[in-house]
Amino acid sequence: MNRLHPRVQVLWAVRAALLAVVLGAITWVVSRVALDLPTLLPVGVFLVALVVGVAYAAVKYRLWGYEVREDSLYLERGVFTRVRTVVPFVRIQHVDSARGPAERFLGLASTVVYTAGSRGADVSIPGLTPDGADSLQDRLKRLAIRAEGEDAV
Amino acid sequence: MSPRLSPLSVPYRAARKGGSLLFTLVFALFSGAMAVTNDLGGPLLVLGLVVLLVLALVGYEVAYYRRYEYELTAESLDISSGVFSRRNREIPLRRVQNVDISRNALQRALSIAAVNFETAGGSTTEAAIRFVSFEEAKRLQREVARLKRGEEPGAGEAGEEDVEELFALSADELALVGLLSFDLRGPGILLFLASGSVPVVSGLFADVEGPLLALGGVAVLLLIVLVSWLAGIAVAVANYYGFTLSRADDELRYERGLLRRYDGSIPLDKVQTVTVEDNPLKRRFGYASLAIETAGYGPGTGGDRGSESAVPLASVERVLQLANDVEPFGDPAFERPPKRVRRRYAMRYLIALAAVTAAFFGVEYVLAVGFPWWIPLVLLAVVPVAAHLKWLHRGYWLGADHVVTRNGFWRRQTKVVPYYRIQTVIESRTPFQWRWDLATVVVDTAGSNSLVGNDAAAVDVDESTAATLRDELDERLRASLATRRDRQRAEATERRPADADESVGRAADEGAGPVADDDDGRNRDLDGDEAVEGSDPDADGEGEHGTSDDRRNKPGDDSENEVDGDTDGVGFGADSSN
């Protein structure tokens, strides 16, 4: 089972931190405008959200895994709801490798696999190195062509 | 010379557009623009404007008519259209999923029809021809079906086709469809509107006795049921009046509708999922309904048209026979979830019941009108029964060529998915399933209804079963695809039997090692075929793990290794026939 690049934890943790800031700010605004809440509550909310978010990112990283099997792509992920997906190569429509601004900053990339299925866009592998994402994309593409699927639908 | 729209489409389109414009105009006149027009010369000017508008409208529609051309060639449907910005579109015929004709009452009087060509993957209709004569519409529908089979264009005229009626909905059955269907949309809207007036109403009833209030609640509930029932009857009759389903070669055709008539085609080779649906009432009287899904309908239209392109009601035997005509899956012997699941459901219902009771108690605590808040507790007696029933109606079955799943008590759906239609297999476990060691396996297809998350799913199966199921479905998808490919190839290369023999010979040679991609593919196909034909539908997840372990031990994945991995796959495929 392949793991993601450890740096993806940073990406997720930063996202969690941003969310924590937003939550803290909301609490602060509410306490200023409407309710008479303790002064330190916004800070508390921020800290709790931050710790939970960072821990979540770490656990999420530990539980994420993918595997290029001989005939299908297999993914395992999810902290609370554990999801395991099997994408047969014959079903792959196209493969993208994508890099968002935050991902570029951290030197990461993701690979997105599309099928004709209704949940196709779900199959995205984050936290790869740019080279890794490109080579995975390339490999999946070759495997998909070789699997020579018929018309998807 | 390519065919054109019906000339009648000009006045119809103009009138329809004019109607909405007129409405806007009248609205504008009465909302203050009157004063302005009075200054500018009064009613005469308004009349002049209207005449100008009508002329412009008719002119546009004439231009639209003159510049709209379509043509059905052996390969594609070509449409060029547009008055100001031109658009030329070619739709490959083999991509066309459904050809749907619809006519509302007025269109029927004018004998014109709207034709929609649906392809997979688009959120909108790929091509919509706005109004040809009904005969032309039917001709298009027939021609598309014929051309897709590779026959010569223009050869088949009306009547030459071999159409066999499979099912017609009798008047009695139509009445039953109405009686047995509830349309919750109307009451839903009512409820939504009423929810805003709750404070007012509760104010009104503040001095009413508690039991009376409860009685009122029950009365309102009954009213909702009655209204939804009546709405259901109206909708069902409007939708399914004069329903017939017939088969023309490799297509199904349906016709239905009271005011608006629908004539649709469902190519059998595009069927993704077949769903048999019933509810307790239908089960009691031995009825069921059938829905056939293709990938031709975009999101949002699935519930509206896709799922209605099927039999609304027929006796169970008839429905099963029809379903088997479309997808010969046989007689499923469902594997139920483990019995401990019943305790889980009971727990779930208890929690829901507790929540409702608590809410009732809260209301009573605040209003203090003597409302019998404990009423929901009466349902405690039903909880075990409900849990058992839910468990009873759940299950999955792996057939020779299909996976069949069944879920639901009130709206029981039996979904039949051919293995070769599987897109992805998703196994998931929610935190609530963890502690019971359960999992859900969703079989994703490209069907239209799956877009709203209505996929075939084996819900709450044992965790180990789920893992096996996941790999097994993947396995069978590939085997089934290989069989289909072989059949197609055999049909295509019937005149070259020597070539096929050679491949078989090579496939038998197991230790062939890395071979050229093309040959390798063919070997695997033939092998897969043998595996399927002799295969016993028993789970064989072990081999899969074995090969994946193999893969893990190979650090450098170059293409040679891939070929190796593939031959592993072949070996395993053959194993499963033992």
TrEMBL record, chain A:
Question: Domain of life of the organism in this record?
Answer: Archaea
Q: Which UniProt keywords apply?
A: Membrane, Transmembrane, Transmembrane helix
Q: Which InterPro entries match?
A: YdbS-like_PH
Domain YdbS-like PH, residue spans: 61-139
Q: Which residues cross the membrane?
A: 12-34, 40-59
Pfam families recorded: bPH_2
| The protein's name in its UniProt record | PH domain-containing protein
UniProtKB/TrEMBL annotation, chain B:
Q: Does the keyword Membrane apply?
A: yes
Q: Where is this region: Disordered?
A: 480-578
- Note whether Transmembrane helix occurs among the keywords: yes
Biased region (Basic and acidic residues) positions are 480-509, 542-557
Q: Which InterPro entries match?
A: UCP026631 (IPR014529), YdbS-like_PH (IPR005182)
Question: Which UniProt keyword terms apply here?
Answer: Membrane, Transmembrane, Transmembrane helix
- For this protein, the parts annotated as crossing the membrane are 45-65, 189-206, 212-237, 346-367
Q: Where is the composition biased (Acidic residues)?
A: 527-541, 558-567
- Tell me the domain of life: Archaea
The YdbS-like PH domain extends over 65-143, 240-324, 391-472
Which named protein is this? PH domain-containing protein
Q: Which organism is it from?
A: Halobium salinum
